[in-house]
Structure formats: C-alpha cells, structure tokens
Write a structure and sequence with these properties.
Elements lengths: L1 H27 L7 H22 L7 E2 L12 E2 L4 H22 L12 H4 L48 E6 L5 E6 L3 E6 L4 E8 L4 E6 L5 E6 L3 E6 L5 E6 L6 E6 L5 E6 L4 E5 L4 E6 L6 E6 L5 E6 L3 E6 L4 E7 L5 E6 L5 E6 L4 E5 L4 E6 L6 E6 L5 E6 L4 E5 L5 E5 L6 E6 L5 E5 L4 E4 L7 E4 L5
Antiparallel strand pairs: 1-2, 3-4, 4-5, 5-6, 7-8, 8-9, 9-10, 11-12, 12-13, 13-14, 15-16, 16-17, 17-18, 19-20, 20-21, 21-22, 23-24, 24-25, 25-26, 27-28, 28-29, 29-30
C-alpha cells in the first residue's frame, strides 16, 4: 500500500516539475535570457522531477517495512528502517512550493522584481518624427519608420456638361433631316427627341416607346417620322407635335432591332430579335411579307437606292440579300466572324458596307458576293455606319469608344475621334460634312470633317 502511495506522489511531483518547465518556456518566450523568474521555474522544475524520480525508484521510503526473508511474527520478525525521513520531507515540500509559485504567477499575486524589470523599457520604440527630420533617439530593437512616397490616385475624368432636356441614357440612333436643320435621336431611355442644329436647342420630345427606342427616321415628306423600339412597335409620328398617326405592331415577331425606309417612303423593312424580317406597306398600313430568314437576332438592315432589295445581317455574322417586292431571298453568306452591324448601300446599288463585332468594316460586291475592300483600325465592335452625302466618306462608330472617317475609294483612315467617354453607338453626317456621334455618355457631339477636337452639341441630362 505504501509503495502505491509513493508512486502516486512521484507522479504528482513529475507533473509539477513539467508544469514548471512549461512556465519557464513561456517566461523565456522561446529565448534564453538570464532572468530571475526563469531561474526559479527552472530550479523548481528540476527539483520536482528529481524528487518524483526518487520516489518512483523507492529511494525515499516512508513507514518501516518488513524484510521479505524475515518472519512476519514472533521474536524473529525483523523490519527495515524507514530510510531518510528528513530528505523525504524536503522532497515532498519542493513540488508543493513550486505549485504555490505557479499559482501565484498565474493569478498575478507574484511578480518578478529582479533583473527583468528594465527589459520592457528596452523594447519601447519612439514615435517617428515629422517627414524630413531625424528622431533624437532610436532603439536597436525598433528602428524608425523609413520615409514613404505615396502616389496620388488617378485624376477623375473631366466633368461633362449636362442639360435637363437631354437624354437620360445612351444615345443609340441619330438621323439628320433632308434640309440638314434638324436631328432626331433615339435612346435607351425610350425617348425620341427632335433637335434644332442651328439653334442648338431641343425642339420637342417627339414621343416615347414602351421599351428601349432603337430607330428614328425622317420620312421623305419632311412632315413625319417613323420610330421603332424593343416594344415591337413601329410608330408613324407627326413632326410638328409628335401626334401618333399609325402604329405597326410586330406581334410575335418580337422587338424591332433595325428599321429602314425605302427612298420613296412607300415601304419599310424591319429586322427583329426573333430573326424575322418584315416588309411593311406604309401607305396602306399593311404587312407585305414576313421573312423568317435568320436564325439569330437581326442586327442590321439596309435598302437599296431603287427600293427593290434589302440587305440584312444578324448577330452571328450572317448576311442575306432580299428581293423586296417578291419577298424572296436572293443570297445568304457568312460575311463576318461575329455580328454584322450598320449596313448601308452605296449609291450604285451594287455594293454595300457592313461593320462587325470582329472589328472590321467590309465592302461587298453584291453581284459576286465577294469582299472587295476592308477597313481595319477599330479595336471594338463597329456598331454603326453612315455615308456622306457625296458617298466619298464613311463614318463609323465603335464600342472601342472612337468614331472614325474613312476614304471610301482607298480605305484609308481620314480622322479618328475619341471623346474618352465610353462606347459610341450612333453616327451621322451633318449637312456641312461634320460627323455627329452619340453614345453611352448620353451626349450628341459634332466632330470636324478633317479631324480635331469635337464640341458638345446637345448634352445629356444630369444623372
């Protein structure tokens, strides 16, 4: 029984000894500086472990025990002395003292006041001085913060002018009247607006669509306009006051993505987001043909100068040529790697120009259906095209944020315009030969025909 008790005492002593060494490690922080607290924990731990090992080995026995070879009873019975009682008591006291020290340190009742008292002061760093000065005193363990140079943020783009009567969203269509005095614009804010170029003022809000407005065209009579949008409606409006004269509804053919009017104003051809191409009789207010020709949304429509043929393109780059009176497809070919936009016929009726999401502008021979010229330079989708009145120059607008003027005969770039305000969606030539653009910034700008800085013709509404 006594032997078992000694073993339990030995185990307790070893536990206390290892606890002392754990406190020693925490006091040193993994480093070996000579400190008073570290010495106490080290000594206590070592003595506790030695005492525990001594009890475990039976070197410090307790009460008298019998010699195994001697009789248990009678006069021949013999006992072994108790061993070293004083050393045993000291050994028992060491772990008890060590345990008291550990508890006192743990609960803050005991603090070392010896050689470590000044150690925290050596780790205090002085606050850095003002830039350009040297601190009066620095410590070896906490060097001063080196000087830093902070680059300023990128300057914000210059504020754009605004006008309360302007468009509240992107300008996606521009058309110039035959006399050159008025501009009509369509916007993703659903509004159609009529502008006076000479007076630089808004004449009126001509009308509003139920969804994004896509197209706004002057009728040849000079008194009315035809507008269309994603709501699937083509609306004939009176220019003088915006009165709606007739509504052509595309029904199941979907939203109107592109719209063109024949030169004589008798017919219109619309391209829809379902891929359908619809031919309308504007005079009779009827539908002549519904041509389900494209597998993808129609992204461009053009009508030949004689009004007999139409060219349509879709967002997969496919081009189709149509016989308008007969409602018959004449040819289909894959003209671009991506969507075909901004199609226009040339004056001879045998050539057409298309822009594309593959960043190219191509001139097509519609007799051979081959590419005869290409204009390269844009780094984004060429979204809209316009021909000058004399047919010698081509204007292009791109999602790369630039508009350009090209020489139709050579394919050379004449001028590049970059307002730095994001994608440009619409382009038209003014009567004086300058280039008009509209884009994501809600603004209509006027650019010199030979290149140079543009001017804000009609500012967008405040955001």
């Amino acid at each position: 029984m006594k032997r078992s008790t000694d073993r339990l005492l030995a185990l307790a002593m070893l536990v206390v000894g290892f606890a002392c060494f754990a406190k020693l490690y925490l006091a040193l922080g993994g480093k070996p500086p000579a400190t008073t607290s570290a010495g106490i924990f080290g000594a206590a731990g070592m003595l506790s472990i030695l005492a525990g090992l001594s009890f475990l080995a039976g070197l410090l026995p307790g009460a008298p025990r019998h010699e195994p070879s001697a009789p248990l009873f009678g006069r021949d019975a013999a006992t072994v002395p108790a061993g070293r009682p004083r050393l045993r008591r000291i050994a028992l006291a060491v772990p008890l003292i060590a345990l008291v020290v550990i508890l006192a340190d743990q609960f803050g009742r005991w603090r070392e006041t010896g050689g470590d008292a000044a150690a925290p002061a050596r780790e205090v760093a002085f606050a850095p001085a003002e830039p350009g000065t040297t601190p009066a005193r620095q410590t070896a363990l906490a060097p001063a913060t080196p000087p830093q140079t902070l680059a300023p943020p990128q300057p914000p783009p210059p504020a754009q002018p605004t006008a309360p009567e302007g468009h509240r969203d992107a300008v996606v269509w521009l058309a110039v009247s035959a006399d050159g005095h008025q501009i009509m614009s369509a916007s993703t804010d659903r509004m159609i607006k009529l502008w006076d170029i000479d007076g630089k003022r808004l004449i009126r809000d001509l009308g509003v669509h139920k969804d994004m407005a896509r197209s706004a065209l002057f009728m040849p009579d000079g008194r009315s306009a035809l507008t269309a949008g994603d709501d699937g409606e083509i609306v004939l409006r009176q220019l003088s006051d915006g009165t709606v004269l007739h509504v052509f509804s595309s029904g199941a053919n979907g939203g109107v993505r592109q719209l063109k009017i024949s030169p004589d104003g008798k017919l219109a051809v619309s391209g829809h987001d379902t891929g359908s191409v619809v031919v309308w009789d504007l005079q009779k207010g009827t539908v002549l043909h519904v041509l389900p020709g494209h597998d993808w949304s129609v992204s461009s429509v053009a009508i030949s100068p004689d009004g007999t043929r139409a060219l349509t393109g879709s967002i997969d780059g496919e081009l189709k040529l149509w016989d308008i009176p007969a409602g018959k497809q004449l040819r289909s070919w894959h003209g671009h790697e991506r969507g075909a936009y901004g199609a226009v016929f040339l004056a001879d009726g045998h050539h057409a120009v298309t822009g594309s999401g593959d960043y190219t502008i191509k001139v097509w021979d519609l007799d051979t259906f081959k590419e005869v010229r290409r204009f390269d330079g844009h780094s984004g989708t060429v979204y809209a095209l316009a021909l000058s009145a004399d047919g010698k120059r081509l204007g292009s607008a791109s999602l790369d944020g630039t508009a350009r003027i090209w020489n139709m005969d050579t394919g050379a770039e004449i001028a590049e315009f970059d307002p730095g305000t994001g994608p440009i969606y619409s382009v038209a030539f003014a009567a004086d030969g300058t280039l008009l653009t509209g884009g994501m910034d809600r603004t209509i700008r006027d650019w010199p025909a030979a290149g140079g800085e543009g001017t804000v013709l009609f500012a967008g509404a405040p955001q």
